[in-house]
Amino acid sequence: PAAYVVNLDTNIVVYEKNSETPLSAASLTKLMTTLLLLENYQDQLDSISLTAPSYVYDLIWEQSTNASSADIRRGETQSLRNLLYAMLLPSGNEAAYIVADYMGGGSIDNFVAMMNDEAKAVGCTGTTFVDPCGLNPNNITTARDAPGTYIIQTTDKLITNSSYHRDYTKGGKTGSLGEWQNFAGWHSQDGESYISILLNVPYDADPEGMRPALVETATIMDWVFDTYTIAPALDTTQPITEVRVAYSTQADTVMLYPADNMMTLLPREGGAALTEQVFNVPDQLPAPIKQGDIVGTVTLTIEGETIGTADLIAGSDVSRNQLLYTISRVSLFFSSTYFKVVVILTMLVIGAYLIFTVGRILRIWSKEV
User: Fold this and answer.
1) Residue 190 Rama label (left phi>0; alpha psi -120 to 50; beta)
2) Considering 28, 169, 183, 287, which has the largest number of Cβ atoms within 10 A of its Cβ?
3) How far apart are CA 174 and CA 146, in angstroms?
4) Distance CA 334, CA 317 (A)
């Protein structure tokens, strides 16, 4: 129903579908709880321990009798680090509530308000939280908005030895309510990284009926890594266009080179050849010109989407011919509005003087007659 895949190296979105549509966040909600925990206590994860209050288990039970758990018992004490891992790996709902109780000063509502304030602060305009774990279906987000001793096993089978496994997946978070599953993933291969968000993937997308969002994520990310790569869109060693030169007998034009190779996300097949170039350069450049002078820009697009703009620099020195320059300046002066105004004013003054002089002569002549 909704998906969003963005390349982290370029911030280019390579795939999206209904990315602004609000849908139930489920356990992706815990990513916000995790974010707030790390923003406030990242240096105290091992020095602060919390005791699980009894009332949070009642809140969980009221919402679901089958909620995922990290098996933290009432009255049990765990470090913030253990609670962090418990939220992210087995998606422990009690761990999220224990953190929310502590950070909210004993009030879950206070913590939920913090979650919504943070969502607004980071630009998640389509996201609303009503609990810290995602059991409530009224926790909504959009695909664009969403990024004793225990042995805790991750439920993210894209990074474990299973039929869902992909080497490029480095981490992620699942979440589900009812007949669908969400997944937010981080993927990296050959130095290229992506974030993927899939929301409300129906269970029938997985032949095994277990991890539909992981199946769909693997399908999309296989396509992404097969289709795109980070590559130079421009060659800084080759001229990209040329422009006429004025006031020089040394050269009629100067070649322009891109100042940056503009490493960007490009299709593996066709690459830079698929880009369209829009130049912003003057009709001509006045000499003298120094090699390396910035004289314009080029903007690259693919299928109408802008991928970046680079400066254009002169590829060589071009000297000025002083005679051509002087002639041009003189010609420009005589064709200028200023010169025309001066000529008109001068003619008016001369005309007025002639009228005055002729009139005076006529008056003298009439007196003599």
Assistant:
1) left
2) 183
3) 12
4) 30
Neighbouring C-alpha atoms within 13 Å toward the C-beta of 43: 0
Is the model's pLDDT at 160 over the cut of 50? yes
Q: Say if residues 77 and 94 touch (Cβ distance below 8 Å).
A: no
The SS3 of residue 205 is: helix
Task: Give the CA count within 13 Å in the CB-facing half-sphere of 368.
Answer: 6
Percent of the chain topping pLDDT 70: 91
Element of type H or E holding 17:
strand 13-17
Q: Find the DSSP H helices in 134-191.
A: none
Measured CA distances, 257 to 170, 242, 273, 281 (Å)? 39, 9, 17, 12
The DSSP-derived string for 236-294 is: TTS--EEEEEES-SS-SEEEEEES---EEEEETTTGGGG-EEEEE--SEEESPB-TT-E
Strand partners, 186: 171, 195
Query: Distance between CA 44 and CA 227 in Å, rounded?
Result: 43
